[in-house]
Structures are given as C-alpha cells and as structure tokens.
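User: Fold both of these, please.

Assistant: Here is the first one.
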Amino acid sequence: MLYVRNSFTSNYDLEEADVCFLGVPFDSTALAEGNQRFGPTLIREALKAKISYVPQKGRNPFKELKICDLGDLDWVPGSYDITSQRLKDTVESIFQTNEDVFPVFLGGEHLISLPIVEKLEPRTVVQLDAHLDRAEEYQGNEHAHNTWSSKLKGTDFIRVGCRSYTEDQDSGEDFMDVQKKLREVENAEEPIYLTVDMDVFDPRYAPDVGFPEENGLSPQQVFELIDAAFEKEVVGMDVCEVASKELNNRTAHLAAKTVLRSLSNLY
C-alpha cells in the first residue's frame, strides 16, 4: 500500500480547480541574504501544518474549494528578464487551461508581482506593504524588489501599511490610516489584484522578512483589508517576502493564515 501526504487534502487537476498555487522563488535583486527563495516551500509546509478552517468566516477553503498546486516556476537566478517572461507565459497557460481559476502566487521577493500584474492587467492593485516599492531604480537596476510598482503606468494603487520611504517619495499621504484605506478599497475600481508583502505586519507578528520595519499592522487589520478587497472582483493575489530557511517559523505560519483568510472569501 502507498502511504503519502500532500500539502493539501486533495490536489485537483488545473482544468477543474477553483484555486491554483504557483510558487515563484525568485530573490535576485536585494542586498539582504536571499532567503526569500524558500518562501513558497515554507508557506506550503505551514499550510500543511495548520487547521484550514477559518472560524471568523465559518469556512474551510481546503475542504470546500478544489485546490491545485502547480509547484514552483522554473526561475533563472540572476535574470529577471528570463524569469519574468517564463512567469508571464505560465500565467497565460494557466488561464488558457482554466479561465475561471483563482491564482495564488507564493514569493519570492516582491518583484514577482510586476510580471503578474502586467499579464493580468487589473484596474487597481491593493498593495499591503511596509514600503512603497516605487523607486525608479535600485543600485543601477531598473527592475528590483523596491522598484516594481513604479513600472506599472496607468494602474491605480491603494497602498496600505507603508511606513518606510525616501523623502522624494513622501506625498504626505497617511498609509497607516486603516479606516481611510478600507474606504478606498471599498470604492476601488475593479478588477483588483491583491499583493501582500509580509513586512506589512509588525515584526512581532512576522519577524522573518527581507526588510522588517517597526510599527506595522496587526493581523486583524490586514485581514479586515483583505476581506474588503474580496467584496470586489479580485483576479489574483500573491504573498511575498517570507525570508527564512527554517520550517515552522512564525512568518510562514502567518502567511499561511493570510492565504486561508483570502480564500475564505471566494465563496
């Protein structure tokens, strides 16, 4: 008899899935040690360990949705150009196979959001992040973890939790006013793409990130924002910047809860 265990109770074929996971373990543009490449594995292992029932919503996404785990993108270390094209091609193939599937991308550094958003073309990006990520370049590199959102011209952004940026990026906007941001999300143009950088959380909740910043949001605040986003049409999401080599770490477990909370809004 064959005894095996998968990250999910059932792993459906993409053709019939409600949700698909794709890991994107790219982490080639940051000075910090590149542990973000382990993020997809750590989040999957945390999902395997966690109870998937979300009591606040009265739902169990892994029992009530058909989940397909596609594995990880075959990325090229050091090459954003090749990796981004492979990611775009993969996203296109996913929707050619199943136009109704909801994609969840597991990073990886935050630069992975750029080719995904370019391919999905949402009207609004809801960015939960400690940083604006809208520098024009980083150490001479046009495409980096902190430049990706500056490349998306014509896309509306609702940024929440940002608390570290340069003086030339300071518009006077209060990104930490969660109630105001909730109203912005409620009035956002559809469709929406949701991106969650784990450094949006205060480090006491998520210590293992690439660039931790004090005085972040609580899980309750982040989950309220996620629930508000899913009141609208959401075409996909990612969770990025889990930076660790250790299984069973707090940040990966919170990332798993973030995924579960998001999926509990799909039905």
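And the second sequence with its predicted structure:
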Amino acid sequence: MPWLQLKVQTDQTHVEAISDWLMDQGSLSVTFQDAADQPLFEPPPGETPIWSNTLITGLFAAQTGIEDIRSTLTEHFNDAITATRSEILEDKDWIREWMTHYQPMHFGHSLWIVPSHHSPPQADATNILLDPGLAFGTGTHPTTAMCLSWLAEHPPTGQQVIDYGCGSGILAIAAAKLGANQVQAIDNDPQALTATTDNALKNKVNRQIQCGGIDLPIPKQADTLLANILAGPLIELAEHFSKILKTGGNIVLSGILQEQAEPVMQAYQRWFSIKLTAQTEDWILLSGNRNNKI
C-alpha cells in the first residue's frame, strides 16, 4: 500500500507549531531535513538544534485527503510557509532495500565490514560482521571510515586499546580483530554498550573487549586511544586522555570538522605531538603520540 507525504518548507521558528499541527491532522510521523545545506554544530546544553530553513515531511495513510490538508495548512500558517508539495511514497520491502544499499566496505589492505546478508569478499581477510542498529557506527560515515583506515594501516598487535565513544563497537572490534590484546570500549549511552557487547559476541572477540561507562577503571595506561566523538568533548577530554595513554602511545581523534581542527589541536599540544592525518569531505582525522611532558 502506498503512502502520502506532505512536505512543508519553513523557518526554524515555526517548525514545532507546524509539526504539531500535522500530527493533529493524522500524520503518522513527522521528520525534519535541512532545506538549505546548513551545517549544524554542537548545541549549548539543553538546546535542540534546528536549521534556519527546514523541510518538514508528514507521512499520511493513502486514503487521507492530502490536498485538503495542504490547503488548510497554507491558510492557517500563511506567511510562515515558503513552499509545500504532496507526493506518493510507494511501499517497498524496506529490508530488501536496506540490503541493496548496505554492501561490504573495504579499508586498508585487508579489513572489511560485512553485513550479515552478504558473504565476505575475501574469506581470509579481517572481516567484521556488522549491520546497522541502534548505535552509531557502521563504517559508512567519513569519521568512522577514516578511523578504520588508520587501524588497518597501524594494526594494534598485542596492544591495550581504548575506544572512547564506542557506539556500535566497530572500532573496538576492528582493534581486537587486528591483534589487540585487550580493548576497553567506553560510552555514556547504554544502547551503545549493548550494541558493542552484541557485536563483539557476533564477531567472537567478546573476551578481548570490556565494555563500560565513562567511569570504567583503566587497569593500565593504553598503547592506543581512539575517540570518534565531537570536537567539544574532545577538547574537554584532552588532559584526561593524557593520563590514560602511555608515553609514546598513539592517539586518534575524529568526529571533527575542518574548521574545528585548530582548536582541537591546540587543546592537545601540551601533552601530544598531533597533526592532521586524513580528510574526507569536511571531516578530518587527527593522530599523533603522547609526549613525555607532564
């Protein structure tokens, strides 16, 4: 059965009112999209970010009188709406659709992320079995991809590794499969810890990976620390990371936009020799080593 979509373009001050109105008219869901290619950075505590020019999409059942709703919406909000349009959304086998678009991904010489519906392209490679789930991190985002490429080029054989902000556990699992002796996967989101635990078990590296919150005890200083989070938290964590990484140890930081690179590097220069190592689109990866300064 097809569905109907009503798309409404408006400014940020009217997003909540229009979305509430659409729900009152029987919309089954309401989603927001950027209508003008405007990046959103980290919001202050307690604030919900929204674009200045937002496209709201209401999803309705096929039998809904969508043109009547569209007409009433235009009359009700008048100048608050830039444009509206209605369209049919054909029903699909969304599982099959996902399977079509999520294919194995290759990093470095022989590291692969392989979805469960697909056979590994290289059976003797380092294959990580991973499907999209509740927690962030499947290798498709540039920040995760750059971290995976770094790991593939610098396998942590026999090392103590920390994955700070583990999400799905993809980096922790990659480190374990690439030879790490022990990996501590840390996140403040319980869903992330559940996802990491499940994915580690699926990949048979659960004995190498210890999951926990930000208060997880670090038994000894790590050889390598990976943090794919956001620029603000990375800046705040610089000194903490300096205390849990041994002298000469590797640090890998991602989740950073190009214009945020300089303040992040400045925050780490006291304890680390760090540089821009990779860039994909507007995202960058910083890496370096813990120096012997206090």
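The longest helix spans residues 190-202.
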